[in-house]
Amino acid sequence: MTIPTKAELKAALKNSRPTLLVTGGGTGGHVFAGISIAEAWKSKFPDGKVLFVGSKGGIEEKLVPRAGISLKLVHLGSLKGVSFKKRMKTALQIPLALFKAFWIIVRAKPQAVVGVGGYASGPVVLIARFLSPFFSTRVAILEQNAVPGFTNRILAHFVHLVFCAFTGIDKRFPESRTVITGNPVRKEMIPLPPAQRVPFNIFIFGGSQGALGINSLVLEALPFLEDIKSELVWVHQTGERDFERVSNGYLEASFTGQIEKFIYGMKEAYQKASLVICRAGSSTLAEIAAVGRAAILVPFPQASDNHQEMNARLFVEQNASILMLQQSAEGEDLAREIRRLIGSPHELTRMENQVRGFYRPHAAEDIVSALIWPLDHR
To answer: Are 23 and 54 contained in the same domain?
Structure first.
């Protein structure tokens, strides 16, 4: 599928109903992609409406309202990688989630619905597709990772469109309904000037899940950097649950830094960063590509289908990042890599240049353009 031209879009929008429903969540990666698409929709339709449907208890409860987007919630757990008891609980929640999704769709009458991943997107996308003939709704999903997620593997059989973040993953979906757009990032994530090298600023964050392992790896590395600690500046997002342990860990090692539970000003943190140490979720990778920062990627080992490692290897194959596996890496290994990079500014510059090759600046706009393009023109 190809993205329509501006002239074609103008003709298609004459009698459009500018309402978008974004659904999904559970992780920051899903939510940030959804927010980016919502921002692109609002940019195209200043008077349009956007509604986000997520899961009760997910990070979307915090991030979506902060972005000025209306939020509705469904109660739905996971079916994969959880205990039998939790699977049974989720199975019992599905009928109610479908019923609630039905009324959300009927009341919103959206022109377009896009699922950005996460279990909440399942019932909403299915009901939206069932009701699409009544409201002329275009229904789509976004696959952000190098390995299709469980929910998206099912939904791909029903939706009108599948958007893919990476080249290659599109082969797993019907060709006639699939388009490679790249992964949307928040509008403030734009190419930044080259990073400073002195002092050497290290920015660490573990994402909305799995911060514990990456936090531990960094704390274990600190004693091996004792002799150069005056050259280093640390900015560390710990996550809510691990804040006290990490803060105490820095104090015990006699290191100082900016230690935060959650950092909302991500652009400023990226701007100062000489090196990023982070997970390999698709939104994280899209952001470091957008801002152009060298990174040590530590994939979350419990990610479904090991998709974070698969994501990371796409970047490593292009010499755009460094891969370090949590299962085998130790603090001394991380400290050694930090020392090596401090002494190799040319390698940092090379990674910054290479990672920018993954940046797709118009991903969100391309998704919106495809969503509003009439089905009979595809």
So the answer is: yes
Is there a single domain that holds both residue 283 and residue 270? yes
Q: Find which of 65-74, 201-210, 216-225 is predicted with most confidence, using mean pLDDT.
A: 216-225
Long-range Cβ contact pairs of 155-163 (< 8 A, separation 24 or more): 155/115, 155/121, 155/122, 155/125, 155/126, 158/125, 158/126, 158/129, 159/115, 159/125, 159/129, 160/129, 160/132, 160/375, 160/378, 161/1, 161/370, 161/371, 161/378, 163/114, 163/367, 163/370
Q: Which two tokens stand for residue 320?
A: 């755009």
Residue 87 clears pLDDT 80, i.e. is over it: no
Same domain, 20 and 152: yes
Q: Which 8-state DSSP code applies to residue 124?
A: H
22 shares its domain with 54: yes
Do 233 and 170 have their domain in common? no
The closest of 264, 216, 218 to 242, measured between CA atoms, is 216
pLDDT, position 377:
42
- How far is the C-alpha of 72 from the C-alpha of 101, rounded, in Å? 10
Please check whether residues 234 and 128 belong to one and the same domain: no
Beta partners for residue 54, in sequence order: 73
> Quick one: average pLDDT of 210-233?
94
User: Are residues 35 and 57 both part of a single domain?
Assistant: yes
How confident is the model over 182-220, as pLDDT tens digits?
Answer: 999 988 899 999 898 999 999 999 865 558 899 999 999
The encoded tokens of residue 277 equal 């140490």
Sequence length of the chain is: 378
E-strand spans in 87-172? Answer: 112-115, 138-143, 161-164
Query: What's the CATH number where 241 sits?
Result: 3.40.50.2000
- The sign of the CA dihedral 368, 373, 375, 378 is negative
CB 146 within 8 A of CB 169: yes
Angstrom distance (rounded) from CA 78 to CA 94: 10
Q: Do 328 and 371 belong together in one domain? A: no
pLDDT value of residue 129: 95
Give the domain extent around 145. Answer: 6-184+362-377
HSE, CB side, 13 Å, CA atoms: give it for residue 245. 15
Q: Residue 275, Cβ neighbours under 10 Å: how many?
A: 23
Q: Report pLDDT digits (tens) over 176-190.
A: 889 999 999 988 899
